[in-house]
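Support request, please re-run this one:
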Amino acid sequence: MSNIAIITARGGSKRIPEKNIKEFCGKPIIAYSIEAALKSGMFDTVMVSTDSVKIADVARKYGAEVPFMRSEATSNDFATTRDVLMEVMTEYAKLGFNFDYMCCIYPTAPFVTAEKLKNALETAISNDYYEMISVVPFSFPPQRSFIIKDGELCWKWPEYKSARSQDLEKFYHDAGQFYVYNAARYLEADGVTGERRAPFILPETEVQDIDNYEDWVIAEMKYEAMMKEK
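Re-run finished. Output below.
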């Protein structure tokens, strides 16, 4: 069985300049994703898809492959992760390489560890899952959320306004860290997912979206706390 880890790292971040290689707790943030994938021992190939020479140089320094640069079509603001993954898999196929499973890892995911990736991939393979997504529970039950209508605060779902949190169904959202796919099925379906999708549940203490500098500071605090616990 042959597996590939694809780290998607486009250049040109606007809110946090050079976000994908900005120093995070002592090293470029993309290094955490690369090192976790390599250390897991689950991947025959660990590659970075980027349009940036600077990112490519950092990626290679930390042990990732950059066999080709991302095309202009997958480097603009409208390109999706699906577009990038399809391009990478197609290019590898041209080079004569085909994979059984692929794992898409975001470059700003310092909470990803080798253990998590190994566990996720082994679970996906043993259960023949088409897709596995890293998710985290909502910290507050969405069923008890408000909306603003005509300037007034209203319950979105009034039937739940008196419900106890522990009695409500738990909701989850994408943790924005990694995704495991059956590579052959992904290509056959042209990147359209939905069949046998499984969760890889993460604790809120090990999840943080990083969209601005405030998020960055919070992420570093959470990461340092996670390291102390380990």
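The chain has a mean pLDDT of 96. DSSP finds six helices and ten strands in the chain.
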